Amino acid sequence: MSRPAVNQSGKRRKPQAKDRLIGNELGYGGNAGLGYQTPRVKVIFIPSQPQYGMANQQCPPGGMGGYGGMGGMGGMGGMGGMGGMGGMGLLTSIVQINSQICENVAQYDRCSTNSACGCFHRIGTSDDSGVCGFLWPTCSHLVPCNVSTNSCNQLNTVCVQHPRCHELPLCYPIALSKQNICPPKTNKISSKWKQNAITVAGGNGKGQQLNQLNNPYGIFIDEKKNIFIADYYNHRIVEWKYNAKEGQIIAGGNGLGNQMDQLHSPIDVIVNPQNHSIIIADWGNRRVIQWMNQKQQILIDNIDCVSLAMDKNGFLYVSDHGKNEVRRWKIGEYNEGAIVAGGNGKGSQLNQLNDPTFIFVEENQTVYVSDKSNNRVMKWRKDAKEGIVVAGGNGEGGNLNQLSGPHGVIVDHLGQIYVADSGNHRIMRWCEGKEEGELVVGGNGIGGELNRLYRPTSLPFDDEGNLYVADTENHRIQKFEIML
């Protein structure tokens, strides 16, 4: 790839509209000035393929940052003539950093297969474009840009907007936007799964024996492929070890009740990775309760909780079916929490929910909500005042652009949204912005065969990409193996 502002003959050229600049505008210096000043860093992205570019560092010593004439020092900008004789020449280095450019992507929104990466907008652009980089650099390590030129004096940095850290533009390290950190969302092929599942828990009829389940709802898969199951009508949480023939009771199982060692219709369960405690949405008792080494603690009371999620910072997210909202709590600080979705009464407006069920939280704290009675899935970015519809929203039905009572929701590394379309007995995949989804598994009508589902609810992946489904009314957990 040729250097910016230099044509194939080696002569300088005028800047072109296709040149992408982050930082200063491209310019040419006038007559050379004398004296050496601190080099100005210009970072220019010129894409070699969609979403990618070459970062070129132009460091002209002296002047106001324009390119100096032949052998000259940078002048005051503009189209310059020949530089002064004997002056220091333009220092140019070209470094390919394989950074990703995000276009038509909202600030901080996902732009990579790594959900910890987001879009940092450039200064002075109106097309929602910028750099795709790691979302969580330490704010105190970022210095403000030069306010008069919106440029950076530091090597290997680029001037971007980062209002979570500071209201002024900041110099962002280019190293945090490399492809090995923030791979592209394109050039990947969507996965497919075998259509006949393997039953990995239950499947021995409805019952309360250790090899049986009774309407399993939420499930959680750990790194060892152990399955934690909210066994709804058995009022217990069971753990099925990998390849086990039966489960073991790890919470509840002492009959329906509201005592500390009892559960009443538990509907979801997660494992806190920080202390390996079990956190349970105890639906019938209207509480969120933690079990750890057979000791119990009520974390949140008086809540119609359906689903639980935890982000990488240890914040707990809870969907409140009764209040039509999702709240976030910091572990150990259970006050009122913060509303992160809904909270504006029951309804179908973009700032409302109607019977929210399951939720999924990305690393950038974007929340996805299965909005059951609105037959849609909503996406709420961090600090958003309203959500956007990313699946369904076209009334209840069985067409590819519709959902029927959605429950479980999960987002993969490509940003694709998977939904347990419970009323249609199928799992659907939606790409944000598409008019309709595509069938993943199920969709063959109600039945107990291995290619059928009966009111599926929860749907996690394991670390190999295998898809697990709580096949609720068939009283079993199904594993659909990924086809590599």
From TrEMBL:
Span list, region Disordered: 1-24
Alphabetic keyword roster: Repeat
Repeat listed as a keyword: yes
Molecular function per GO: zinc ion binding
Listed CDD domains: NHL
Lineage top rank: taxon: Eukaryota
InterPro entries: 6-blade_b-propeller_TolB-like, NHL_repeat, TRIM-NHL_E3_ligases
NHL repeats (start-end): 397-427, 446-483
Key word Magnesium present: no
Protein name listed in UniProt: NHL repeat containing protein
The organism's taxonomic lineage, starting at the top: Eukaryota, Metazoa, Spiralia, Gnathifera, Rotifera
